[in-house]
Write a structure and sequence with these properties.
Spore Coat Polysaccharide Biosynthesis Protein SpsA, Chain A; 8 helices; 2 domains; single chain
């Protein structure tokens, strides 16, 4: 991963998803990377587990210029995401960022095209962008440098315009995925991890997830009764009783009794 930076040539922080990539386009133009034909662009505030090779292979097989990973979505949350209209071969015809009302209804599609059963398709008639993309390298550079040099965001600016000119394909990811880019969504996703059974499992030995070490001491628990909870390292819990509880510890944390 590349961190947001300021340089003598560019003193502004990232202005959006597209601008973040634009500020590092020099990496793609390095002579040692000229052979790279496709670029995978990921978001850092999502919780999911995906085999990216399948995603990239779909992009190659369909000869796509851009491929967007998407999830089927129901009515309750569809207006929170960028939605796509597709044809019977999965090509994206139209992209609308967070539509509401009649505009939302107009984005309903037959999601059986992407592999959902008729029952699932009835419940989830929308296709929402995950904000994860595969671009042909030459197309990405053309869009960022010359076609839309002032566009800052992929979802609201570059992708909607690109559907008219390029072969933009949808790739269905019909598994657990959550956008945890807000404090509330981050908190709710962590509480969901404590459910039985959880919708997402961190403890799959065949698909481990690695995190950044904090170098804190192990959590110490004394005379506690803990149910359906997640407690990070660096905590001290004297005589605690808790249920459906999550604690994250940037520093040492003391957890008192009666937490729920």
């Amino acid at each position: 991963p590349l961190a947001a930076t300021q340089t003598p040539d560019g003193k502004k922080w990232f202005q959006g998803t597209a601008d973040a990539v634009r500020q590092f386009t020099w990496l793609f133009e390095d002579a040692t990377k000229k052979h790279i034909e496709h670029v995978l662009i990921l978001s850092g505030d999502h919780l999911y587990r995906m085999d990216y090779m399948k995603f990239i292979q779909k992009h190659i097989d369909t000869r796509a210029d851009i491929t967007i990973s998407c999830v089927p979505m129901d009515d309750s949350r569809a207006s929170d995401y960028g939605l796509m209209k597709i044809d019977d071969r999965g090509r994206v015809l139209y992209f609308s960022e967070k539509p509401k009302g009649a505009d939302l209804r107009a984005m309903e599609v037959d999601t059986t095209v992407l592999g959902l059963s008729p029952q699932e398709a009835k419940i989830k008639p929308y296709i929402a962008s995950m904000g994860i993309y595969v671009f042909r390298t030459d197309i990405l550079l053309k869009l960022l440098r010359w076609r839309y040099p002032t566009a800052n965001d992929f979802g609201s600016e570059i992708i909607p315009a690109s559907t008219k000119e390029y072969n933009v394909q949808a790739y269905l990811f019909n598994d657990y995925w959550e956008d945890i880019g807000t404090i509330k969504s981050f908190f709710d996703a962590n509480l969901a991890l404590a459910a039985q059974p959880p919708k997402f499992r961190f403890f799959d030995p065949t698909k481990p997830i690695f995190t950044s070490p904090r170098f804190l001491p192990p959590t110490k628990i004394e005379k506690c009764r803990v149910l359906d909870s997640i407690i990070s390292h660096g905590c001290f819990s004297p005589g605690m009783q808790c249920r459906a509880f999550c604690c994250w510890s940037p520093f040492a944390t003391r957890i008192w009794c009666g937490v729920e």
